[in-house]
Amino acid sequence: MRTAITERLGVEFPLFAFSHCRDVVAAVTNAGGFGVLGAIAYTPEQLDTELSWIDERVGGRPYGVDVLVPGKIDASALDRDARLADFIPERHRDFVTHLLSKYGVTGPVQPMGGSPDEFGRRVTAAGATGLIDVALKHPIGLIASALGPPPPEMVTGAREAGVPVAALVGTVEHARRQVAAGADLIVAQGTEAGGHTGEIATMVLVPQVVDAVAPLPVLAAGGIASGRQMAAAMALGAQGVWCGSVWLTTEEAETAPSVKRKMLTASSLDTVRSRSRTGKPARQLRSAWTDEWDSGQESPGPLPMPLQMLVAEGTMARVTAAAERGEPGALELANYFVGQVVGQMNQIKPAREVVYEMVSEFADAVERLARLSG
Amino acid sequence: MRTAITERLGVEFPLFAFSHCRDVVAAVTNAGGFGVLGAIAYTPEQLDTELSWIDERVGGRPYGVDVLVPGKIDASALDRDARLADFIPERHRDFVTHLLSKYGVTGPVQPMGGSPDEFGRRVTAAGATGLIDVALKHPIGLIASALGPPPPEMVTGAREAGVPVAALVGTVEHARRQVAAGADLIVAQGTEAGGHTGEIATMVLVPQVVDAVAPLPVLAAGGIASGRQMAAAMALGAQGVWCGSVWLTTEEAETAPSVKRKMLTASSLDTVRSRSRTGKPARQLRSAWTDEWDSGQESPGPLPMPLQMLVAEGTMARVTAAAERGEPGALELANYFVGQVVGQMNQIKPAREVVYEMVSEFADAVERLARLSG
Question: Which portions of the sequence form the region Disordered (chains A, B) (predicted)?
Answer without folding.
Answer: 270-301
